[in-house]
Design goal:
The chain is an all-alpha fold. It has helices spanning 2-14, 18-91, 105-111, 122-129, 139-176, 179-185, 212-254.
Length: 255
C-alpha cells in the first residue's frame, strides 16, 4: 500500500500536476490519520473488553465471599444473642432472686460461650494489596468495600473485650464451681460418644448464684455482648448493601 502511494506521488510530480499532488498528499495524510485512529479505537476496545472481563470475574469472586460472610455473620450474631439471653436468665436468679428450682447448669455453658466472627476476605485483600481495587468501576461499591475492612477491625476490638471477660468468668467458675456438672446437665457427648458423668465432688453450681462477683461477671458479659451485637448488625447491613451492589453490577455486565 505504501509503495502504491509512493508511485502515485512520483507520477503526479512527473506530470507536473502539483495541485493534484498536494491534494493527494493531504488525502493520504487523512487516510493515515484515520488508520491510526481506527487502530487506537480497536486497541482501546480490546483493552476495555479485557478490563470488563477482569472486573466481572472480580465481582463474581467478591459475591461468593460476601455471600459466605453474610451467612457467617448471621450465625455468629445468633450465637451472641443466645449468650446474652442465657446471661439474662442467670441474672434473674441471683442474690435475693435465688430459687432451688432454677438449675444454673442449664444455662452456664451458653452464658460463657462468647463467639468470634472470621470473615472471608482473601480476594478483597488481594485486590487491595495488588492495587487492583480500581477494577471495580462503581465508586459507591468501591468505597463500601474499603469501609468493610475498617468495620471488621472495630468489631474485632469489641469481640476481644468480650472474649477477655469470658475467659475470666470461665477461670472464676473453674475455681469456684464445676464445668463437669454443667456439661453433664447439657447431655454433652464427645466425638467418641463418651457421656460425661456428674462431678465426683460434692458441688452444686447453683451456689454461684449467691456470689456478687459471679453476678457482676455475668452482667459484664451481657454489656460486652450487647456492644458486639450492635457491631454485628452494622456489619450485616454493610454486607447486605455490598451484595446488592455486586449483584446489580454483575447483571449489568452480563447484559
Amino acid at each position: 500500500m505504501i509503495k502504491l502511494f509512493k508511485n502515485v506521488r512520483k507520477q503526479l510530480l512527473a506530470e507536473g500536476k502539483t495541485t493534484k499532488y498536494f491534494k493527494y498528499a493531504i488525502g493520504e495524510i487523512v487516510l493515515v490519520v484515520i488508520g491510526i485512529l481506527i487502530a487506537l479505537s480497536i486497541n482501546n476496545w480490546n483493552e476495555n473488553s479485557k478490563q470488563n472481563k477482569l472486573e466481572l470475574e472480580a465481582l463474581k469472586n467478591l459475591k461468593e465471599d460476601f455471600n459466605y460472610n453474610l451467612l457467617t455473620l448471621i450465625r455468629t450474631d445468633s450465637f451472641n444473642t443466645l449468650n446474652i439471653k442465657s446471661c439474662v436468665q442467670i441474672l434473674n436468679h441471683t442474690g435475693k432472686r435465688y430459687t432451688e428450682a432454677f438449675v444454673l447448669d442449664t444455662y452456664l455453658n451458653d452464658a460463657v460461650s462468647a463467639t468470634t466472627y472470621v470473615a472471608k476476605n482473601g480476594f478483597l485483600n488481594d485486590l487491595i494489596n495488588s492495587g487492583n481495587l480500581g477494577l471495580i468501576k462503581n465508586n459507591v461499591l468501591r468505597n463500601l468495600l474499603s469501609s468493610w475492612l475498617s468495620e471488621l477491625i472495630d468489631l474485632k476490638e469489641s469481640e476481644n473485650s468480650t472474649q477477655k471477660n469470658n475467659v475470666d468468668t470461665i477461670d472464676f467458675i473453674i475455681k469456684n464451681g464445676s464445668f463437669l456438672n454443667a456439661d453433664q446437665a447439657r447431655n454433652y457427648n464427645s466425638s467418641l460418644n463418651i457421656t460425661l458423668p456428674e462431678s465426683g465432688f460434692e458441688i452444686n453450681n447453683n451456689h454461684l448464684l449467691k456470689l456478687p462477683e459471679f453476678e457482676n461477671r455475668v452482667e459484664n458479659q451481657i454489656i460486652l455482648c450487647d456492644i458486639s451485637a450492635n457491631k454485628y448488625k452494622t456489619c450485616i447491613k454493610l454486607n447486605t448493601e455490598i451484595l446488592q451492589l455486586l449483584e446489580s453490577e454483575i447483571r449489568t455486565k452480563n447484559n
